[in-house]
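Translate structure to sequence.
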């Protein structure tokens, strides 16, 4: 069998080239590798126009109907990560492209980060740290999470992992999920019931037409004034203007955010000015362990596809 040609259009900043997955990929395939972002749809098309297989690293590369139409040879799009909101799946199906992803590999890392954000907000760690460095000695105004209720929206791999962590520090855990399954062993609740009852609400949903704007003014009005919102999923799941309004007006107590409607967060964004918000740069799943596991799986998905037994398929051609 001839060596397959794999195009990597967007390894920026580079993670694949420095990983343990790279030597095997380079040994078994001819790789067209780019360590800069395409920057435009047309530039992405230029890079992958002749490709049969694309290994996509960054969600900033958008695979639209136009891209699929301009790349008629494309057979497999192997995504590093779980999100598919940068891919027009209907267009991929029309053009006979199989799409795979890397589910579960970042679950522990993202769940740990969600826990860190909720603790940082509840304990006001960034603000207290800054005040101590300035010579102050602040007291009080911290929240204990033991005995509080953690509401999890979405019981995929990350949501289940966070539920375990929350229970481990003595929180009552309740959950809402699109496909409720009592066999998972979690206490399930309706969406509105969860929003009213929870002291911390953590989002673990895929971005889709159904979940875009899933948390807005109506939902913030249901929450406790003492509630903390954590989002390590996708920024557009929350109506950002409504979130800023809820935080600045004391409708909720705080938020821990790893994702935003626009990334990177624009300079001077209102969220960056609020003292009751802890921010991180969409990095919840970016640990060496999660990076390595995800990149290896994205490469393994290519071999499985070529062997006629595709795995981790989001969309089958």
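Result:
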């Amino acid at each position: 069998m001839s060596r397959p040609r794999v195009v990597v259009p967007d390894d920026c900043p580079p993670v694949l080239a420095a990983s343990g997955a790279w030597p095997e990929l380079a040994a078994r395939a001819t790789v067209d590798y780019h360590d800069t972002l395409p920057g435009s749809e047309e530039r992405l098309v230029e890079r992958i126009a002749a490709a049969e297989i694309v290994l996509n690293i960054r969600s900033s590369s958008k695979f639209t109907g136009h891209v699929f139409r301009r790349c008629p040879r494309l057979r497999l799009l192997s995504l590093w990560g779980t999100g598919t909101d940068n891919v027009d799946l209907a267009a991929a199906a029309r053009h006979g492209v199989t799409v795979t992803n890397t589910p579960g590999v970042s679950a522990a890392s993202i769940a740990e980060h969600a826990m860190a954000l909720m603790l940082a907000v509840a304990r006001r760690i960034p603000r207290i740290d800054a005040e101590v460095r300035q010579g102050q000695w602040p007291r009080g105004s911290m929240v204990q999470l033991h005995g509080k209720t953690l509401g999890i929206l979405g019981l995929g791999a990350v949501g289940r992992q966070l539920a375990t962590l929350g229970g481990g520090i003595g929180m009552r855990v309740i959950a809402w999920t699109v496909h409720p399954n009592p066999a998972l062993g979690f206490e399930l609740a309706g969406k509105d019931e969860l929003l009213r009852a929870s002291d911390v609400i953590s989002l673990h949903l895929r971005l889709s037409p159904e979940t875009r704007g899933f948390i807005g003014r109506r939902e913030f009005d249901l929450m406790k004034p003492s509630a903390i919102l954590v989002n390590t999923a996708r920024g557009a799941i929350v109506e950002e203007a409504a979130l800023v309004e809820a935080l600045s007006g004391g409708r909720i107590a705080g938020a821990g955010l790893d994702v935003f409607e626009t990334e990177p967060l624009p300079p001077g964004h209102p969220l960056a000015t609020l003292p009751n918000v802890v921010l991180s740069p969409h990095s919840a799943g970016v640990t060496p362990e999660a990076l390595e596991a995800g990149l290896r799986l994205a490469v393994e998905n290519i071999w499985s596809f070529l062997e006629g037994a595709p795995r981790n398929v989001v969309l089958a051609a």
